[in-house]
Backbone:
């Protein structure tokens, strides 16, 4: 049996004496999605950073593609597309130039064509040659989502992907996530409020560092999946 894309066991993170995550346990498989709902400072971003190998747990473990997140290989990292609160766009480059740069960085063949394709996918065709410094927050968010997804990763880690998006953009991004999952990508998404993505996604709530699995759209009973 293939290893889960993500699996955490007793995952705990403290900053000084302050616990941010308390014994979180969950699993995410190929072609599935999960949404973690929680307020500011609840630990959502910290959880994604640990899974991406950008932060280390205080206790417990997280594995990604069967490998300890603290020791991910270059190949493992290439299989991950991560969206953070920082767009990582270069303000003095155009939307097209930004995506062409990342296409080259990711080793994508025919990067110019792929950049154009993804600019169209996120609805920025009319602004393709404009410098990002003139973009609204929502436009920059859409471009960052294109950067995250253009390499067709096996795992998407999306930290509040709908922040600053208008309803039309939310519909566009939701469709892109559905398509990626339908094609075998695993997606872990954080949000302030429950999301309606149009696909079956396991929902968790995180509060005071504890991760709780909620009733899903198939009527599953709400239950805790963390240690006491």
Residues:
């Amino acid at each position: 049996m293939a290893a889960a894309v993500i699996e955490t066991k007793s995952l705990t993170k403290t900053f000084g004496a302050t616990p941010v995550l308390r014994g979180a346990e969950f699993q995410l498989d190929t072609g599935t999605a999960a949404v973690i709902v929680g307020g500011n400072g609840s630990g959502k971003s910290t959880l994604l950073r640990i899974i991406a190998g950008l932060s280390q747990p205080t206790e417990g473990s997280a594995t990604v593609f069967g490998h300890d997140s603290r020791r991910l290989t270059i190949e493992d990292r290439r299989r991950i597309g991560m969206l953070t609160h920082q767009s990582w766009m270069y303000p003095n480059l155009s939307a097209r130039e930004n995506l062409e740069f990342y296409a080259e960085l990711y080793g994508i063949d025919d990067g110019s064509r792929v950049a154009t394709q993804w600019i169209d996918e996120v609805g920025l065709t009319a602004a393709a040659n404009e410098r990002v410094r003139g973009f609204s927050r929502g436009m920059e968010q859409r471009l960052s989502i294109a950067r995250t997804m253009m390499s067709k990763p096996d795992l998407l880690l999306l930290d509040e992907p709908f922040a600053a998006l208008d309803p039309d953009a939310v519909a566009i991004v939701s469709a892109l996530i559905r398509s990626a999952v339908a094609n075998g990508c695993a997606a872990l998404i954080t949000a302030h409020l429950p999301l309606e993505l149009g696909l079956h996604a396991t929902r968790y709530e995180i509060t005071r560092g504890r991760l709780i699995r909620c009733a899903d759209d198939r009527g599953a009973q709400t239950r805790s999946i963390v240690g006491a």
